[in-house]
Amino acid sequence: MIKQFDFKSLRPILVMLAVSIFSVTVILVLYFYNNRYMGEAGQPSCGILDLSGEGEAASGLRWLVKGWEYYEGELLGPEDFADGKSREPEFVNLGKYGVMSREGAIGWIRGTFRLRLVLPETEQVFALEMPEISASSRMYIQDRLAMEWGDPQESRPGIRSAIVPIRETGEIQILIQVADLASIHAWMFAPPTLGSYEAVARLREVNLYVKAVTMVLACVASLLSLQLAIQIRWWRGFLFFLFCQCFVGYAVWPLIRSGYPLEILPWHAISRFSFFSMLWLAVILENDLYRIRGGVVSAVMGGFCILSLTLSFFVEYIPSVVADWFHYLTEWYKFAVAFYLILVAERALVEEMERAKTLLVMAVAFTSVIFMEQLLPYYEPVIGEPFMVLGCIILIVGLLSILWQDMVDAYRSRAVFVVETGRMNRQLSMQQEHYRQLNARIEETRRLRHDMRHHIRILNTLYQEGNTEQVGEYLRKLTPSMAFKEPVTHTDNYALDAVLCHYEAAAARAGIETEISAGVPERAVLPGDELCVIVGNLMENALEACERQEEGKRFIHLKCIQDSQRLAILLDNSYNGQISYKGGYFRSSKRTGMGIGVESVKAIVKKYGGLAEFEPGDRIFKVSVVIPVTSGESGAKGEGKMTFGGKK
């Protein structure tokens, strides 16, 4: 016999494939259409960019990546090019294409970049947006000092991004002196932006707005999680708060450096430590959510975070070979975290754990971003954030979605627990009251039996004396004191009987007519607590509905029957005709949200393979519950043949 292939087993692979294709497609679109390295405007050649013949097109945005002159190991000023001395430059590209030689270098390395521009003779004011340069820089336009952050000659760091206006026309030169730390020089440049002052300023404002909104949303998410964590002692909320704070600590510095110059330390160390700690916290959160013992993994990642912090604080004294080694190690660290997230998601999906699909989508998307960042390193967004920041945002959104669902489930479970605990306490008090009444009647019976002996002796004495008139008089006086009220019982199931007697008494006090028929044996289909939850919830809802009814006959008719095949509970009650039903749920009249009692009934009935129907009529609300009897659970049969509709 050929075994049928289970296509369900392919679902995780198909999900991973679909998410990967979507993520890679989005990244490729960003790379080709939102990338400063892919600009179509003309680029410098051999250190010269001629815009004099382009007219209005000259004021359009362009990113100066290629063809810069570079003088290694020298800090040259305008006077050095005015002396007429011939110098042989190296022509290089800026941004992530750029290379500053650091073979065996420790500490600071220096160099000068030069570009000659030929601008049109116009009143148009141009601008050059300079990106962050680690660790200090000085820029000249012609002979004037246009920008200075830190001191390249004295190796005093200062990092900032800024817009430099260019009011000169004709042929001008741009000189940029750079002093860089050998261990972090790879991030020396993003491509400078050239264009009209209005266009450059507008683009800068948009980017700052995007970064500010991202930071604000991250802070809001972290503060909300902290508030919830404090209010309900939610451990995962504290972890997510720290996760968001680490994201802010990693991504906020470009926003700050747009307005204030910063030194390398301690900000560079804080940024790197925040990034690695953020990935560490993501793994801790995932382990906690899916009950994974990841103590060794967490310890290794924590040690790596401490190592990164230590190396960052001693960045000025680290040999380049160590910096290169640590750079490659950080890339493997990112991939290891990404694949770990995928493995945990796969395991959760196989074990059919909650929110496993959300985790898998998040992990695959994050891995795709890391992979494409390595495959397409030359990416600097025109608008928006770099690939790595986008990957971190994916982690925040994914974890926020998982934790939100987790918190909602926890809140629902807590609400159900509180309600069910209250119901169990009421059921216990019902049973205690029922027990007290039975004991009182037993004691009354014992008293009557004790007193009966004395009454019989007196009557016997009067009879033997022939005093029949006194015998009659004594009997007339004795009869009222011997009146005995039979205890009310509806079923042999003691717990269920206590619930029925409680609500019958409550209905009687409210002037509501009740009719109860309960042919349920002592050994019912359901455990006593779950049977009482069903009947108690239905009777409580019926009683509350009748109490809200202001006109018409108020009544509750309940029939519980168990035979060899099924247990049936049929309930009809009057109500005012107003019902709140939304989204597939009956809404509670006592609180906002769905009615917990009805959902508890449905959950128990579903657990035992039964059916529950709730039918609101014009003025009568009907409930039908049928639960099948499995082998060995039938117990004693109920009286009469069971039919539906409340008739025998």
TrEMBL record:
Pfam families named among the record's database cross-references: HATPase_c_5
InterPro entries named in the record: HATPase_C_sf (IPR036890), NatK-like_C (IPR032834)
Keywords, ordered alphabetically: Membrane, Transmembrane, Transmembrane helix
Ranges for domain Sensor histidine kinase NatK-like C-terminal: 530-628
Protein source organism: [Clostridium] asparagiforme DSM 15981
Ubl conjugation is among the record's keywords: no
Residues spanning the membrane: 12-33, 208-230, 237-253, 297-319, 325-344, 356-375, 387-404
Gene Ontology MF term list: identical protein binding
Classification of source organism: Bacteria, Bacillati, Bacillota, Clostridia, Lachnospirales
Lineage: superkingdom: Bacteria
Name of the molecule in the record: Sensor histidine kinase NatK-like C-terminal domain-containing protein
Family annotation (PANTHER family): TWO-COMPONENT SENSOR HISTIDINE KINASE
